[in-house]
Amino acid sequence: MKIHPVAFLIALLFTSLLPAQGLAQNEGVRVPNFWDPKAVSDRPNSIPDKIQFLATDNHPPFVFRDPQGRLTGFNVDLARALCQELGSSCALRIKNFNVLLSALDEEEGDAIIAGLSRGLPATRRLNFTDDYLKLPARFVVAADKAGDFDEQALAGKTIAVVTGSRYEAFAKRFWPRADILGLESVSLARNAVKNGDADAHFGDGLSLAFWLPSEAAASCCAFAGGPWLEPGFFDRGMAIATRPEDTERAAALNYALAQLQQKGIYRELYLRYFPLSFY
User: What does DSSP assign to residue 214?
Assistant: First the structure.
């Protein structure tokens, strides 16, 4: 059975609209914070001596190979930092995405760090850590209009979206007075803003953060408004999965994730791989 990374899943419809919360800002760069800054967590009594992570490569910026063939990426450095925080030895084993679950069941590894979704039948039995990254929706507009864009006043505005996507479903539901322009591909939706055929494009913030500074964008556009993390549409985040009976390892990883945030290490990793923040 094929299980797709969370970044490509279509989210379920929801019944309430909530603003994005928990964002930290410093020197004009917005870095997400998914942990309660007031929470106090004690170091778990049981810390694993070793954590064998399972992942799949060729998914930049999370896990990929540099020109020398070495594994690198946000998930790679995050896994290393987690092990350092816990004082555990660390290893990373690359597997095809479709066999990650069987590899975990057969104890070829202890934890999957590959963007598995909690919502699929095959993964609901697993223990998941807290989300370490959520993937918000964002608006992009012409660069010279970013300062004037008001995402709460979209009546009469043309918003380019990909036909059949969760972004189209969300836009139609919450901006019924806008002109929702459905296009067949991401590139067409982005180019609609670049060419002036649309006032804004509403889409995946992560991929837009890499498109905006690219040659393809040609400095045409910029983020406008804030990140959208509404439940049922854009709240499915990335987390680490362990076997159902391995609750102690999941608890240790949760503790370590919170510690990385508190110590500023998470921020350093985020800015290393996402220099244009999608928050």
Answer: S
If you average pLDDT over residues 43-65, what whole number do you get? Answer: 93
Q: Are 128 and 168 in contact (CB under 8 A)?
A: no
| Residues 200 and 157: beta-carbon distance below 8 Å | yes
Residue 90 reports pLDDT greater than 90: yes
Nearest partner of 103 among 243, 4, 1, 247, judged by Cα:
243
Residue 7 backbone phi and psi in degrees, to 5: -65, -20
User: Percent of the chain, pLDDT > 90?
Assistant: 78
End-to-end CA distance of the chain: 33
pLDDT digits (tens, 9 = 90+) for 154-211: 999 999 999 999 999 999 999 999 999 999 999 999 999 999 999 999 999 999 999 9
- Quick one: angle between helices 247-262 and 74-86, nearest 10? 100
CA distance 194 to 205: 17
30 bridge partner residues: 25
Length of the chain: 279
Question: What is the distance between the alpha carbons of residues 157 and 200, in angstroms, rounded to a whole number?
Answer: 8
Q: Cα–Cα distance between 107 and 141 in angstroms, integer?
A: 48
Judged by DSSP in three states, 203 sits in strand
pLDDT higher than 70, residue 234: yes
Coil vs helix vs strand at 42: coil
| 111: exposed, middle or buried (Cβ count in 10 Å: 0-12, 13-18, 19+) | buried
